[in-house]
């Protein structure tokens, strides 16, 4: 049987005596689109931080396709294939969308390589392909800081994809975006995911988005997984309704 793409085993971390991850174990299969939901302060972001190396667990292990990556530096984990698009977009706001993307591609390859004409042409082709995939071709020359929030989020995701990740982590891909725009962002994202055969884990507060797009949902509560499974079933679970859905 093939390895899970990501495996977390008994992860535990506490801040000031409060367990933000309490013996958390889970597996993510290749190609899955997995949502994490849970009340504020339940440990969703902490789990992402444990996977990306921003926090070290007190105990437990994280494996990427069977390789233990616990305690590795964030940069090394990113190079190894876990990319994160943050809730607050990380674009250089005074640069064009394309320049941002070229920088991200160059940083993956080693920047000096990018100064060679052949490499530069290859990067430009790669950037154009990613911009098209995320529906941003018409905005390639726009200054990133002038983009509306929804497009900024998609531009931020292109930066994460430029790392050619095996696993993409997304912090609330639709937060701060109008109700109308939310679904079009998700459709574009899903299309890109399918085209690239990507695996992603996303934190989300919007249950409609979770129900419509996630293959599986994990419900966090007080640093533990309260429930998991298909959204249509999990979101009806009375414990989940009480702790998350009812208060969202
Ligand atoms: N670096 C840190 N230092 C101290 N406490 C932290 C740190 N990171 C998280 N915590 C605490 O751990 C708990 C879980 O926080 P976390 O941000 O993971 O929750 P969350 O589910 O992502 O919340 P939200 O939905 O509000 O973003 C909270 O009590 C939080 O205050």
Automatic annotation (TrEMBL):
GO MF annotation: an example: L-phenylalanine transmembrane transporter activity
SUPFAM superfamilies reported for this sequence: P-loop containing nucleoside triphosphate hydrolases (SSF52540)
Classification via InterPro entries: AAA+_ATPase, ABC_AA/LPS_Transport, ABC_transporter-like_ATP-bd, P-loop_NTPase
Keywords: ATP-binding, Nucleotide-binding, Transport
Domain ABC transporter: 6-247
Transmembrane segments: none
Superkingdom: Bacteria
GO biological process: D-alanine transmembrane transport; L-alanine transport; L-isoleucine import across plasma membrane; L-valine import across plasma membrane
Gene3D superfamilies, alphabetized: P-loop containing nucleotide triphosphate hydrolases
Gene Ontology cellular component list: plasma membrane
PANTHER family linked: AMINO ACID ABC TRANSPORTER ATP-BINDING PROTEIN, CONSERVED COMPONENT OF ABC TRANSPORTER FOR NATURAL AMINO ACIDS-RELATED
UniProt-recorded name of the protein: ATP-binding cassette domain-containing protein
């Amino acid at each position: 049987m093939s390895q899970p793409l990501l495996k977390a085993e008994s992860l535990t971390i506490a801040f000031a005596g409060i367990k933000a991850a309490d013996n958390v174990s889970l597996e993510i299969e290749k190609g899955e689109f997995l949502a994490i939901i849970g009340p504020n302060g339940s440990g969703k972001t902490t789990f992402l931080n444990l996977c990306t190396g921003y926090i070290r667990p007190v105990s437990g292990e994280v494996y990427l396709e069977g390789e233990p990556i616990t305690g590795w530096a964030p940069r090394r984990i990113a190079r190894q294939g876990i990319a994160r698009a943050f809730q607050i977009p990380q674009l250089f706001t005074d640069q064009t969308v394309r320049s941002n993307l070229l920088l991200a591609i160059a940083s993956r390859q080693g920047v000096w390589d990018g100064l060679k004409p052949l490499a530069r042409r290859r990067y430009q082709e790669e950037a154009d392909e990613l911009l098209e995939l995320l529906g941003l071709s018409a905005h390639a020359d726009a200054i990133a800081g002038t983009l509306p929030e929804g497009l900024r989020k998609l531009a931020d995701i292109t930066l994460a994809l430029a790392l050619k990740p095996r696993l993409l982590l997304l912090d609330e891909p639709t937060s701060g975006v109008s109700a109308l725009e939310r679904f079009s962002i998700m459709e574009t994202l899903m299309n890109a995911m399918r085209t690239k055969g990507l695996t992603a884990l996303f934190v989300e507060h919007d249950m409609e988005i979770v129900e419509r797009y996630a293959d599986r949902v994990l419900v966090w509560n007080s640093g533990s997984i309260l429930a998991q499974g298909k959204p249509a079933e999990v979101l009806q679970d009375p414990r989940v309704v009480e702790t998350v859905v009812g208060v969202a």
